[in-house]
Amino acid sequence: MSLLAQTLSIRERQSILDAIECIEAGALQISFVVADDMRLLGVVTNGDVRRHLLQGGRTDEQVTACMNEEFRSVQIGVPREDLLKAFDLGHNALPGLDEHGRLVEVYTRQMAASAEVPVLARARA
């Protein structure tokens, strides 16, 4: 597991307050909720936490109470072009999962934009 994935992941038994601390510690403003075997269960953003608190939730509850289970992910080793397309749709970070759904990497817009080969032109319709 990459250092970025370790930094941005929290266990499913941790509290919402732990998730807030994890979100604030990173520049991507997201946290990945993982099971003990590192399977990705959901994601938590500032907006998820805010909505939960506005509905009467508490910060001492488990993070699973406010996590979003409908998230976009990619397989590790995904082609750079597919990452760029996903980031063009507005994603800031994408979890890279192995064949068992375990979090291995977190892909960011900056990682995808740093080319191994020069990009001459990009367009989208």
UniProtKB/TrEMBL annotation:
Matches recorded under Pfam families: CBS
Give the signal peptide range. Answer: none
Give the keywords, sorted. Answer: CBS domain
Q: Does the keyword DNA repair apply?
A: no
Record-annotated CBS domain positions:
1-61
Query: What InterPro entries has UniProt attached to this entry?
Result: CBS_dom (IPR000644), CBS_dom_sf (IPR046342)
**Superkingdom, natural source:** Bacteria
According to UniProt, the name of this protein is CBS domain-containing protein
Question: Which source organism?
Answer: Bowmanella yangjiangensis
